[in-house]
Amino acid sequence: MARNLFLDALISREDFDVQDESQISQGPHKTSLSYSDFKIPGFFFASLRKPDFQRETSEWDTEKVCDLIASFLDGDLIPAVILWKYADSYTFVIDGAHRISALAAWVNDDYGDGKLSRKFFDNSIPEIQIDNAKKARELINTEIGAFKHYEESLFEPDLAEDKVKKRLKTLERELSIFSGLMEIREKQKTLSSR
């Protein structure tokens, strides 16, 4: 039986209503994310928001989350995520909330029962969710290894398990971001004013 993980607590929701287009961020945009961007607390992750219209981040089962983490560490192709930064406040996840949440779950050991999830549910997490999170942690720690072991291995690689050593070099791999929404909008404005 598939066990879907409830990762909706990892990225907060926010109203996507843009009131003043002059406030759209014109500054530099991130073009990739590394594992350190997924750490909680962290400046970048704290600014991430899911627009209200996005579905819950609860469609992926344990195996799919495990596969994505393995793909990330193995250097496999992972489709880019789409982020949109509004003014100097939030960065909205337009596409890729499940991918970002899966990696954040691994980095922060929160598969629906960790610190952010407990806060989201006022410490009243449904029992099925706790059970699913435990099973996910068990599978991921067995198949891939806990993130903290990778982090510890950066300082003592000789003590690392073989599966961790093999993937340690790809830990610095970055997830691509398509942040061209603003550039496309600007080009459209330029073309329409001709």
Overall description:
The protein is an alpha/beta fold. The chain has one domain (12-143, 171-192). The protein is 41% helix and 12% strand. It has helices spanning 43-47, 62-74, 97-108, 115-120, 127-143, 147-153, 162-168, 181-192; strands at residues 12-14, 32-33, 48-51, 81-85, 91-95, 175-178. This is DUF262 domain-containing protein. InterPro entries: GmrSD_N.
Shape: globular
Spell the H/E element sequence.
EEHEHEEHHHHHEH
Class of secondary structure makeup? alpha/beta
Q: What is the residue-mean pLDDT, rounded to a whole number? A: 78
Summary of the model, kept short:
The protein contains eight helices and six strands. The protein is an alpha/beta fold and 194 residues long.
Characteristic key phrases:
8 helices; alpha/beta; 194 residues; globular; disordered C terminus; 6 strands; 6-stranded mixed β-sheet
Task: Lay out the secondary structure.
Blueprint: E1 12-14, E2 32-33, H1 43-47, E3 48-51, H2 62-74, E4 81-85, E5 91-95, H3 97-108, H4 115-120, H5 127-143, H6 147-153, H7 162-168, E6 175-178, H8 181-192
Parallel strand pairs: 1-3, 3-5, 4-6
Antiparallel strand pairs: 2-6, 4-5
Pfam family, one: GmrSD_N
Organism: Symplocastrum torsivum CPER-KK1
Domain GmrSD restriction endonucleases N-terminal: 48-156
